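Treating backbone geometry as a discrete language has practical consequences that deserve illustration. The amino acid sequence and the backbone structure tokens for this protein are reproduced below.
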Amino acid sequence: MAEAANGRRRVETVIDIRKPPVSFTGGLVFECLTYTVTKKAKVEGKWSNEEVDLLHDITSYAPKGCITAVMGPSGAGKSTLLDGLAGRIASGSLKGKVSLDGATMSASLIKRTSAYIMQEDRLFPMLTVYETFMFAADFRLGPLSLADKKHRVENLINQLGLTSSRNTYIGDEGTRGVSGGERRRVSIGVDIIHGPSLLFLDEPTSGLDSTSAHSVIEKVHDIARSGSTVILTIHQPSSRIQLLLDHLIILARGQLMFQGSPQDVALHLSRMPRKVPKGENPIESLIDVIQEYDQSEVGVEALAEFARTGVKPPPLSNQPHSVSTVAPSYANFSHLSHRFEEKSVEFSQVSRKAVDGFDHSLRSPYNNTSMSWSTGNSAAFLKFTPARLKNDHKAHNTTSNINIVVGMLMMNCVLRRNNASPGYYTYSSEIFQATPTPHSSDYAVNENDYLTPSNGTKEHLGPKFENSYITEIWILIRRNFINIRRTPELFLSRLLVLTFMGFMMATMFHNPKKDLQGITNRLSFFIFTVCLFFFSSNDAVPAFIQERFIFIRETSHNAYRASTYTIAGIITHMPFILLQAAAYAGIVWFALKLRGPFLYFLLVLFVSLLSTNSFVVFVSSVVPNYILGYAMVIAFTALFFLFCGYFLSSHDIPRYWRWMNTISTMTYPYEGLLMNQYQVNDTFGYIDGVPITGFQILESLHIKTDGSRKRTVDFILPSPSFCIEKPEVVENCI
């Protein structure tokens, strides 16, 4: 009898774990998610590595057509869970299983079928709302005609309530644009233009006032009702926003504290038992209770155990004592069942209205395959009749069947960890196998496109990118030209600096003397020109760092390739860089009467400016902020200047530092300008009456040419300044 009672208690505990809706027509199911990182900790005065679970055995689900909100105190793991579900955690670091509409999904597949809206709005400030959406449509809806893209963008603008801001710039700190709420809606629209099956939002109401935040969640609510699975993290939602949330997942210390309907939070607290103070919000009360346990000696593990098994947590010192092993009462099951059925009917009606009112054309044309989900997949529908309800005729009449979607998944995870006995599955024979669920959404993932067959051969996964290589480059070039045209400050400031410095150099180095000092002055002009072009590119550091976040957001969901972005950037900036180089070259070439082909001189300056600009962009791509970017660019500029061969000949450089002369980006334009100037037999000066030709100057510097090619083949000998200071060794310099 004791064993039977114990078995019944265990079964009842399993049943009480979850209270999902009666019918679950699909969505995201995740089982036993664990994310472990290694960090350094000081133990007994010594530093050692220890493993910490940022997520620990999280098993839950996010229904299709609903808003699932992930909540919890600061540091609970909300964003970590969102990143894990969105495939943004490094491969292999996250353990567990994720399935969408019954199809097991890998991180790469989730990225291809989802959209992730970051907490910060990363948009081009000088594009209008309409232009921003059109470029998003070009990237994500490649095969559609231009007319279809425009039609979809217009519908999206109307549905997001952005009609009045259609032709307004996005704006930033220096340019007036759309409001904060409108900006957030634009960010959402950019990522849902292709109709993703999954939508992840990280703190979508952060930094918004109450009205704007409610407006944003209202639009997200409409998106969910159109058939998407929406998961968002949110901190302290208002009471109006809470009414729009369908499903809650509350975390603390990376562990699951509660999941279910927001209306069931009060019931969850009463079973602890904790009462909700009069006039207080049940969700806020639960989070307060979690923080109380977190700050106590008991910890939140007791609340996580209560969420898993129903075993009541021990009372805190300021609570009245209660028995912690009493199983939850089933007196409320009849009420819950009726309420779930009512909510299911209500949800179906509201969902149909919302879907009818929301434009289905916003769904991707590649995600319109109907798919029914059977229990053959990882997350099965369970039909369960508990023993106590069988013995209670009245309860049996009112609540004959209780459908559980995720409860057994979680218990399976718990049992594997605790090595519990099979007694928990006493009634597993009542699980009906191969029972189909209600018809899935028309926007479910196409299993034939995304699943890998068991025989190991990969089927057609569909194109990873919507556009061809050339098309991507063309779209990016068009966008780049619009941004440059509307923000000409960077280009014009650099052009003015080079023009001004060109006039200054033309007046300072005009008519050099035909002696060793004159040759030295001309060499100084060339090295200063190289340094000027290098320093003039430093202003690109903050510009690219700002754009880098947009690049990361867009490429994370395969909007375009990184290589096409690079090529488009080079092609876009080449005309402007050529104009800057030509302005400087045209001024100094004729004023100083330089020798050699003008086109070669211009080419060296152009390539020098292009390479230094590329180097600055490279540095900007690896630093976290522009302050560190400036510091690194200045440091490398000093190193390249030191080892370019002007101050110290390469054979005098210690052998272990000579590689710096090779990688210095100033070495090659400096030597190229010298070869263009002195690769002639003209006389450039006299030493003790002996004429010095250009070839002799190049030979003294060990810069040689091979036919028509201009290249460096040897090391540089003593610098001109050394020859001036040591006249007795001047014969070694010539």
Q: What stands out?
A: Residues 1-22, 320-348, 350-460, 711-734 have pLDDT under 50 and may be disordered. The two ends are 110 Å apart (CA to CA). The first strand starts at residue 27 and ends at 43. The chain has 28 helices and 16 strands.
